[in-house]
Design goal:
This protein has 3 helices and 3 strands. It has about 80 residues and is of the alpha+beta class. It is elongated and about 60 Å long.
Amino acid sequence: MSLKIYILKHTNINYEKMKRLFSAITQFVLGTRYYAVIIGERGSDRYYVASELHLTRASAEAHRRRIAETRAYVYITTVSFRWRH
């Protein structure tokens, strides 16, 4: 039996409250997840982390689309990492 099922059966905590609790514990133990967009200069072998760190993948994807519209930079990849303050 998983911890989630055990807690739901033996407490009066609803699923949404438990989900928020586990998210808060995960964030405290592992840190906050961030997304960074890696870009490169067109016609060069230089690569950079774009100037913004994003809290959601959707925000990082929106930034990737804005970069695709430029002529100076090319999108390479999006990486995710966790960071504890």
